[in-house]
Amino acid sequence: MTNSGGPAIEVVDLAKAYGDSRNLVRAVDGVTFSVAEGEFFGILGPNGAGKTTTLEMIEGLRKPDAGTITLLGQSPWPRNPAVLPRIGVQLQSTAFFDRLTAREQIRTMASLYGVQPAVADEWLERVGLADKADTRVWDLSGGQAQRLSIACALVHDPEVVFLDEPTAALDPQARRNLWELLSGLTDSGRTVVLTTHYMDEAEVLCDRVAIVDHGRLLQLDSPANLVRGLDAPTRISVSPGQLTADEARAVPGVDDVDADAGSITLRTREPARVLTALAEQQHLAGISVQTGTLEDVFLSLTGREYRA
């Protein structure tokens, strides 16, 4: 079933608050965005920014206080039996049947949607858990349980997939392998909505990202456009002993210098000029160059203070 050419998800003036009038927390405060069919869409924000609450309202798990949500052309709330088989949901914390093995768990999920056991077994293979098929869920590591959760969300081939911090418990190798799987989800027309704290993950996977904080939408665009709009300085790091901090500040085109025991980092908006000067002074050994990143955008919008 298709969505008649409209967006897969449309959210208008969405709001959700908790507490009473004396201690009101606006978890989601007037958020509006849409997600196109086949788009890989990211929602980024600090802890407590409203990401998970937004997802739960779109998924039909939580009732909005205000605003409208259209998911695959229909309203997800109250719980809509026509929509549920068409979406897949991976939550931050998934409760499994502890006494089941990984194979039994995913086959049970598959059976709820009329999916054959062989398809469930294929998904165990795709998320790298074939060798853990006969392991009880309570004996899986955190990362293995996370991969099983993702497989369970995808086993019935949903049109829209919601992934809430899917790689949070994974080691770097497992994260990279899972990126390869996730990046192919939209190839067949699926729509994917992702929340993550890993900015590199969002840059690699997402067509567009929405950055939210304190329940409000701050920016929405492609990662590349957001980085370009920031006009962040280029960071050029040189290895210890190449030049002193005072010598670095004297290099033509350098705006600022960060010096520590490990290296000296030059900040500039004229990288070609600075690199030319360093080459002339024969200071290019061990040099590294980093342009602006999505993390720079995120920090410029949300600040650097610790969040609970």
From TrEMBL:
Pfam family, one: ABC_tran
CDD domains per the UniProt record, alphabetical: ABC_DR_subfamily_A
Domain of life, per lineage: Bacteria
Gene Ontology molecular function: any one: ATP hydrolysis activity
Subcellular location field: Cell membrane
Membrane topology: Peripheral membrane protein
An example Gene Ontology CC term for this record: plasma membrane
Matching SUPFAM superfamilies: P-loop containing nucleoside triphosphate hydrolases
Chief place of localization: membrane
Keywords assigned: Antibiotic resistance, ATP-binding, Cell membrane, Membrane, Nucleotide-binding, Translocase, Transport
GO BP terms, alphabetized: response to antibiotic
Annotated ABC transporter domain residues: 9-239
Family statement: Belongs to the ABC transporter superfamily.
PANTHER family linked: ABC TRANSPORTER ATP-BINDING PROTEIN, ABC TRANSPORTER ATP-BINDING PROTEIN NATA
Protein known as: ABC transporter ATP-binding protein
